[in-house]
Each structure stands twice: as structure tokens, then as C-alpha cells.
Amino acid sequence: MGDHQQIATGLYDRAYEHDACGIGFVADIKGRPSHDILERGLEVLERMEHRGAESADNKTGDGAGVLLQIPHDFYRTLVPHLPEKGSYGTGLVFFPGPIHDKKAEKLRAALIQEMEGLAGKSGLEILAWRDVPTNPEVIGLIAKKAEPVVKQLFLVPSQGNSPTDLDLRLYLFRKRFEKAVREKAEFAEAQDCYFPSLSTKTIVYKGMLMSSQLRSYFTEFANPAITTAVAMVHSRFSTNTFPAWPLAQPFRILAHNGEINTVKGNRFWMAARESLLQHPSLGDDLRDILPVIEPGRSDSASLDNVLELLVMAGRSLPHALMMLIPESWNDKNPISQELKAFYEYHACMMEPWDGPASVVFCDGRYVGGTLDRNGLRPSRYTLTKDGLIVMASETGVQDFKPEEIALKGRLKPGKLLLVDLQEGRIIPDEEVKKQIATQKPYSEWVKKQVVTLEKLPEIAIGKTVIQPSDETTVLFMERAFGYTREDRDNLLLPMAESGQEPTSSMGTDTPIAVFSEKPQRPYNYFKQVFAQVTNPPIDSIREELVMTLTSFVGPQRNLLEETEQHCHRLKILNPVMTLADFERIKAWHDPDFKYKTLDATFYVPSMGSVQAAGEKGHLETALDRLVDEAVKAVEAGHSLIILSDRSALAPEASRCAIPALLATGAVHHGLIKAGLRMKASIIVDSADPREVMHFALLFGYGADLIVPYGALASIAAICRSADAERTGDYEHAEKNYLKGIQKAILKIMSKMGTSTLRSYR
Fold it and tell me: Which pTM value belongs to this model?
């Protein structure tokens, strides 16, 4: 699209895009379409112009758009042979420009030809095209350089195909086309060819515009024949990133103000789930929609991709949103047991998309808004006596006389505002959530299938659990794993004594690891990131109501269905485990939780050994072997993969531990590549981690549980030394150390504005 197409260059990639925007909607609660709703929606957008960004030319915006119900009567005047409302699909298409460029014309023709072929494959046929009238004179020079050629496509079911699953066919067609554009060499210069929407119910008009330019750019908005019962709008402010036509919002279902702090992990986990996806209506066609998340889009676009999949697969829009952006449901929250069971059931299936977020959404029937569990983005609404509802990032977007207003309010953290345009009413948060939480016996399923450590059989645990236990082996272990006196005296001892992360001065005068001439542990090459720009961190102490380390271990199942077995998982409140709890898990006999211990060490040759040129090193060979063993173990039905480096404790074995971070990351990504990651959990049984940052990194690189046997063995040795009077007995010291690690991990999560460990991974 012109010469302003943003591609991944240097440190820039669209996948890093975040927004801080203005959002809102206007709707007639009774579902009565009118041109006035569109006018009011555009006015809401224009009054939030300060929420969007503009370039130095004062004419190029970061993005603005509106989602409407399809104005059937208006389109009927343009396409006389259009069938009945709801029996066709339509959407705008951004084609490569400029409009009179010969090369671009040829590319557009090839893209249209591709669409025609894919339409037939999807059980559709193209009924009509039209050029959407636009006024490029109102936009800035930068936006004009990237301006697409905007056309509108009308599709109907091909002969012999029922219109009942038309939206699903439209979804298949669009995903197939997106995949073709990404993968075919002939479309290398058409990466911004894009469907803002394609639906039987809604249509999106948007662009790289300022809020005030939308109505004048799309000139047909002035036509009173365009009627709708809802207008959902978005004014984009892309924080420290570039604007682009496809990244303007609304997307196909939602518009989002905020940042998804966990988006990188969410994308990886969604990719890992794809190997398990099955759906009766999609069958083998499901492979054509993968990847679910379109590469190279923003965090909001990725969230919309997953929401769209869940809705297309049969979940209601509010149900899908409750899965993706759940409210806090721990024991301290005053919500019903039925609703807690619903959230716990779905927590067994997927992690939250976490971060400050105010989301408005519309699928043609439902329109509404929701907030993240912390309520870090505002959303306010006004209801009038004549059945109009206005919701936006702020008040003042519409003028009403006091006597016209029936109700004013604001969304609370984790709550839903839902308008059912078909039933013509607002459904209260409590009602909609109760209805969804009781549509299946989630409480019964969770009570029966979710396993906690307390439910596991007790086993006789003696001192042999603390390994190594003799001073000579402990000393050898500490040397082998690089423990220092500073680790013992300034880290392990204070934590075992107080249950707090040691306090130290800010700053460090040591060289960063990559510039150091001395060997460094892999952990040392990483630095903590933190919430920045518009994104506030969380106080993990005062906001503990929304913070949790609760994790679920064991095999996962198909995201697109719900059965009792989906929640047959092991629930762990603190995933940094005691040795006793680790032994209980290993002693547990359940065919769904078979474990396999893999040796995470490698052979160390004797001094003077010569390695052949081009031959893999011993560490690299061991990593390949470890990944291969993990894949075979999962294929054989093992769902708990234990990466253990205890073989390194025997001096005569000449073995060295693979750094736990390398081993974890290699196995995690190896299982993803093999399509097996969701069938198993990774347990790291290692002497390597002892600092808080070590644990945080291991979780970030795929560990589900961590057993720090080395740190605990060192603490046990301290309890047998002259410092025992400071730490007390081992049980007390162990409890304090794990408590300190737990609190410090929560603090690290809070710096990123992340509330749950399941999202942090």
C-alpha cells in the first residue's frame, strides 16, 4: 500500500504494537435502526479526538473506525439483486494502492482471482463488488502514501449450500485468503491486503485517520439510508509505535483500550493449542484457519482473533469474553460458588489475556463492554429514558438534558455490561454470568475432577527426601552449580530466616553478562522488564485480591469443546514446590498423570580430549537428546516430564548439569514444534535455581513446576550449622524460603502489570 508499508525492520515489529485509545458505542436498546445512531456514534468518536494521536502534519491519525450493523436497505439500492438480510455476507477490503498504478492494478487483479478460487472452495460465490467512495483530500500526506484501494465484497452461499452456517463459511474463506497472502510469493507486496470485517451481521469502516476525518473520508456516511441500531467506535493512540491502516480499530468483534501485557505468552500458548483443535462443523477445514492468530498484528488484533475463533466454534460472545478476560475469582472475592467453578473450569483450559484493558464488543446481536480484573482503564455509561445507551472511555461524549437521563454509571473491575439488541434489554452482570455459569454442571465437574495436593495420598516421608543430605555431597553440589558464599549468607540464610527477599541497594557496578570476560550463568543475561508508557504496575501487596500463583498441571484438551475431563488437572497453589509435595506427586497413581524423569545432564570429557572439527559439542548433543526423549515420552502417554539434574551430584559419573533455563526452553519449544506441548507439563527438578529471578525466568520459558532441591539442601545444611539459631528447624526454614520466593515472584509479575502466573508464562 504505497511506500509507507511498515515491515519488520531492525528493532521494530508490528507484533510489539500496543494502544492507549478512546473507545465507545451508542446503541438503541430495543434494536431499532436509524441514521441517528450512526451520527451519534461519529460524534462520540469526534469528541474523543484527544484520545487518538496525530502526526506532525496535523492531518494523519493513528487510526479511527466504526462498526455498524449491516445497512441492508442502503446496500440494496447499490446491489439490486442482493438477497434477503442475513443470507449474504459483506465486508470492506483494503487492496494495495495507488489506484492508478499499473503494478498495483495487476496485483489487485491477482488478489481478486485468488478470492474467487477460495470462495468456491469455501462453498461461496462472489455476488458483487463495488468501489467504496472515499475522499482522500481530507487525510494527511503520510496516510495518503499508505492509502489502500477500498472495495466492498458481497458473498452468498454457492448452489447446494445452506445459508445457516454462512458466517462460518465466511470465516473460513477469509482465513484461507489471509494465509494465501502470507505464503504465496506473488503476494509478497500485498501483506497489507486486509478484510476489516466479513460478516452477515456487522461491517467495519476504518482507516489510518483522525477521529474527525472518518465521516468525511467515507462520504456515504452522509446518506440517511445508512441505518443501524449500534455504532461502536475507536480512536487509536499507538504507544511508541507506528500507525497502519489494518491496525486501526474496531476489529471484527472488539475495540480495545489498554495493553495486553501477556500477549507474547498468549500467542505462544495459542499456537501450542492448535494441534489439539477439533470442531465438528469445520472438520478437516480447520487446518486451513491456522494459525488462529494472524502474525504481525497488534496485541488487540491477536485478542480479537482468539475471541472470533471461540465465537465461531459455538460459544456465546459473553462466554468467550469471560474465558479470555476473567474477573478475579480467588477465595477472597465475593462471587458465587457457581461462578468460581466456571472460572476454575476454564482456567484448566486456557490462561487469561492479562493487562489493563477496557473492551467494547459487538457481534450484531450483543453489544457491551468489560474491564480487566484490576479496572485499570475507565468505562462510563449513560442510559436515557427513550432507550438509548452510550458507553465510552469518558463522560461528555454525548449531551443529554438531566431529565432525559435514566441512569449513569461506570463499569467495575471484571464486570460486564451487556445489551441484547434482539431481546431489547440490558442484561445485568449477575444475570448473564449466572446464566453462563449454570449452562453446564461446572461446579460438579470441578469438584469431581480438579485434584489438589490435599487429595493426594499421604506417603511416608523421611529424611531421605532432602537430597543431598551429607555435608560432603552438599559442598560438591554447591561447587558444581556455582553457589557462592554470597548466595549462602546474603540470599538463602536471610530468606530462610525471615521469609522475605533480601533487601539490597539499587544499582550494580558489575559488567552486564554479555560484556563480562568471566563465565556467566544463562540467568545473568536477562534483565527484568516493567510496565511503561500508559501501563501502570500493580502493587502485589495491597492488591493481593487479584494476584495469584495458582497453576494447573497435567494434559490439556481441545479448546473448542467442553467436557468433564477438560478439568481433570492437578491444581497447585504455589508452583515452587517442597520436596515432600514433589514425592507425593510421583507416588500418585493416575493413568492421566504418568511421569517420566529425564536426565538433564551431559558427559564431561577428561582434560585434554579433542573434539573433531564440525562435531556438535557435548552440551548441544545433550540438549538434542533431551528434547528427543521428551517428545518420545509424551508420545508414549507421559503427561509429567521431569527434567532432573541429580545425576550431576555423583563426582565419579563425570556429568555436568545442563543449565536449567536451557533445558526448560529447549524441551518447551521442542514439544510445541512437535504439537505435543499441551499434552504434558514440565517439572524442573534442579539445584540450579535459587534466586527469585531464576524462578521467574524458568516459568517464563515454560516450566510448570519447579523443585529447587539444591537450594533446599543448602538450607538444610545451614540448619545443621552454627547459623541454626537464626533459621530454626528445617521445616520452618523451608517454609520461609518458599514464602519469600512466592512473594518475590508476585512482585516481579506486578512490575509488568500481570496478575496471574498462568498469564506470566
Answer: 0.92
